[in-house]
Design brief:
With 180 residues, the chain is of the alpha+beta class. It has four helices and eleven strands, in the order E-E-E-E-E-E-E-H-E-E-E-E-H-H-H.
Length: 180
C-alpha cells in the first residue's frame, strides 16, 4: 500500500537515555502540512515466565508516572548489539532473578502506535527458577508467583492494568492452558 503521509523534515526535539521525542513536518493526504510528534523508543521485550510448579512470575511494580502499583510481566528494552533472546534473558534475570530451561518467541506488537514507534516482542519462558534480582535504582518491584488460571483471570478482569502485559497474557492464554 502507498503511504498517505509524507515526511518533509524530521528532528529530535528532546531526548533522555530511555526515549526521545521526534518532531516531523508532514504533508497530509489533503495537501496541507502539519507537525507530528512521535516518542521514539528502542525495541522492547516482554517475558511470560512460568515456573516448574506451573505458576506465572509477576512483578508488582510501583510506577511513578501513574503513582500506582501495577501488576506486570518482566520487560525491558533491547540494548544495541543485543539479540531479542539475549534481552529477554537479561530482563528475566534482572527483574525477577529468573533463569529458564526454555525460551520461545511468541510474537510482536506495537506498544502505543498512536504516539510511539516502539515494537514489543514477547517470549514464553518455561522451567523458570528464581534467584537474586538486579533491579535498577528506580525499579521498585515485588516479585510474586501465582497460578496460571489466577493470572489469566487477573488479565481478563483488568486487574493487570499494564496494557502490554495484559495483551501478552491474553494472546498466550491458549498456550498457557496447554502447560497446566
Amino acid at each position: 500500500m502507498t503511504k498517505p503521509i509524507k515526511t518533509l523534515s524530521s528532528k529530535i526535539a528532546w531526548s533522555c537515555p530511555w526515549y526521545a521525542v521526534r518532531q516531523d513536518e508532514i504533508l497530509l493526504p489533503d495537501g496541507s502540512q502539519g507537525v507530528y510528534n512521535t516518542v521514539t523508543k528502542a525495541t522492547a521485550v516482554w517475558i511470560l515466565p512460568v515456573t516448574l510448579q506451573k505458576e506465572i512470575v509477576l512483578c508488582y511494580s510501583y510506577r511513578y508516572t501513574v503513582d500506582d502499583w501495577c501488576w506486570e510481566l518482566p520487560a525491558g528494552g533491547v540494548k544495541p548489539g543485543q539479540t531479542l533472546a539475549e534481552a529477554a534473558l537479561e530482563e528475566l534475570h534482572e527483574e525477577v532473578g529468573g533463569t529458564c530451561e526454555s525460551l520461545e518467541h511468541l510474537g510482536q506488537f506495537y506498544t502505543a502506535n498512536g504516539i510511539c514507534d516502539e515494537v514489543g516482542h514477547f517470549f514464553l519462558a518455561t522451567g523458570v527458577t528464581l534467584g537474586k534480582t538486579a533491579h535498577e535504582p528506580a525499579e521498585v518491584i515485588e516479585v510474586r508467583t501465582k497460578p496460571i488460571a489466577n493470572v489469566l483471570k487477573m488479565a481478563r478482569s483488568g486487574q493487570i492494568s499494564d496494557a502490554p502485559s495484559a495483551l501478552v497474557l491474553l494472546l498466550a492464554a491458549e498456550r498457557l492452558q496447554q502447560l497446566v
